[in-house]
Amino acid sequence: MATKEFPLVPEKVELIETRYRRISTPIPVPESVPLLEKLRALEPRSMGGQPPVIWHSGQGATVSDRWGNRWIDFSAGVLVTSVGHNHPDVIGAIRGMADQGLYHAYCFPTEIRLKLIEELSSWLPAPLKRVFLLTTGSEATECCIKLARTYGLKVGGPSKRVLVTFDNAFHGRTMGAQLAGGSAALKNWLGDNPDFVQVPFPDGFRQKDTSFSVFEATLVAKGIKPEQVCGVMSETYQGCNATLMPAAYAQALRRWCDAHKVVMIFDEVQAGFGRTGAPFGFSHLGVVPDLAACGKGIAGGMPLSAVLGTDELMSMYGPGEMTSTHSANTVCCAAALANLQAIRKEKLIDNVQKLAPILADGVKRITAASRGKIGHYDAVGLVGCVQFTQPGTTTPDPETAWQMVLRAVQRGVMLFAPVGVGGCAIKINPPLVINEEALREGLEVLEKIASEL
Ligand SMILES: Cc1ncc(COP(=O)(O)O)c(C=O)c1O
């Protein structure tokens, strides 16, 4: 949750030249300031939340501007470019499809759509069977909400329409997705809606008791009966941290959903396709949901998302009743196919497993170096998180988190603006292609900065 703008005042910084990082100008670059100012003048303020760097190109796990600066990319474009920037297969697939002369086909069938659906199907554990392509993560989570509500109506009538989600959850910024989100501040504009109910996420930090009994007790306290619930949706790890839902909790939730004819939905928009060191976040939990929403890392940087679902749920709507204009855009399909094949061919999930302990150790060291300013750290696969809090509490300290991001960017490590509860969390999630040397170098920079805050 970016809540402020970084100042557009060039600061003289230490010059840096390593194999992966190069900082040769003040940051922000003086020549870039008029361009950044124009963007700020013409766009909504909401678009001005990221560090003041004009991205120009990228290569693998680095990004560059056009003034000679290069950063180790710990953002992956907010968990998108899993196979790295400028991946030759993805670029080749985009070019190839454009050269074929067909860059849009609406929902008319195309061979590239078939190829991508076949590839995606090969990632699916039973009973997930059908794949529906969309464009954004929000569109995918919205579709899951619609399917859960439709199923509730079918099996329980109009009163079975409550969607249970989790405190601090993030599922996107469109209306249904935001209603399902768990940050009150983000949905003030929507007012109260009794059909969307949140329970604590078992993260072990803000919610210490991680047992499933909390789920049931919270519903009782909120006056919600199981027969009113059509679906439960959760990220497998929340965007505001990097802690997977405990397996025992997920398994109890699966049993609860089965017992009460409730659709179990995982939002895998961040976690899917290798980020956690497994195909999906839920692969760690010993359960398979009825629906999964995917996006971000699915398509190598092109706008494409997907809903993965059971035959029963995906067959409720008839021909033409669930479509979207840019669903299965041919160029995006080609990129997604190349991206997923590259994840397999380059054994990127193995790379994540190999590097995961180094990242976990890194966030631990950054936390120790912060001398109490970081109240919590966690990591899974190639996503790590540190949360800045007032010492000894869970109260967010966004100011120090912002300082950390700015200094990291000035020293050649690209982070996106703080996210999560009160804007206090810094996420570290490089492309899955990063090598050990670059990962260690970036983590050491962050550790040094944490020791100076
Ligand atoms: C877990 C999760 N779900 C859904 C979304 C929404 O995706 P999009 O921004 O593509 O609509 C996001 C985006 O950050 C996300 O992290």
Helix and strand topology:
Elements: E1 16-17, E2 22-23, H1 33-42, E3 57-59, E4 62-64, E5 70-73, H2 76-79, H3 88-100, H4 111-121, E6 128-134, H5 137-156, E7 162-166, H6 175-180, E8 196-199, H7 213-221, E9 229-235, H8 247-259, E10 263-267, E11 291-294, E12 305-310, H9 311-314, H10 330-345, H11 348-369, E13 374-380, E14 383-388, H12 398-410, E15 413-414, E16 425-428, H13 436-452
Parallel strand pairs: 5-15, 7-8, 7-9, 9-10, 10-11
Antiparallel strand pairs: 1-2, 3-4, 4-5, 6-12, 11-12, 13-14, 14-16
Protein architecture, described:
- The protein starts with 15 loop residues before the first strand and ends with a helix.
- By secondary structure, the protein is of the alpha/beta class.
- The protein is globular, with a radius of gyration of 22 Å.
- The protein is 35% helix and 16% strand.
- Helix 3 runs antiparallel to helix 10, helix 4 (111-121) runs parallel beside helix 10 (330-345) and helix 11 runs parallel beside helix 13 (436-452).
- A hairpin with a 2-residue loop joins strand 3 and strand 4 (62-64).
- It folds into two domains: 16-83 and 347-452, Alpha-Beta Complex (Aspartate Aminotransferase, domain 1), CATH 3.90.1150.10; 88-345, Type I PLP-dependent aspartate aminotransferase-like (Major domain) (Aspartate Aminotransferase, domain 2), CATH 3.40.640.
- The strands form four sheets. It has a seven-stranded mixed beta sheet, with helices on both faces. Strands 3-4-5-15 form a four-stranded mixed beta sheet.
- The chain has helices spanning 33-42, 76-79, 88-100, 111-121, 137-156, 175-180, 213-221, 247-259, 311-314, 330-345, 348-369, 398-410, 436-452, and strands spanning 16-17, 22-23, 57-59, 62-64, 70-73, 128-134, 162-166, 196-199, 229-235, 263-267, 291-294, 305-310, 374-380, 383-388, 413-414, 425-428.
- Bound molecules: pyridoxal-5'-phosphate.
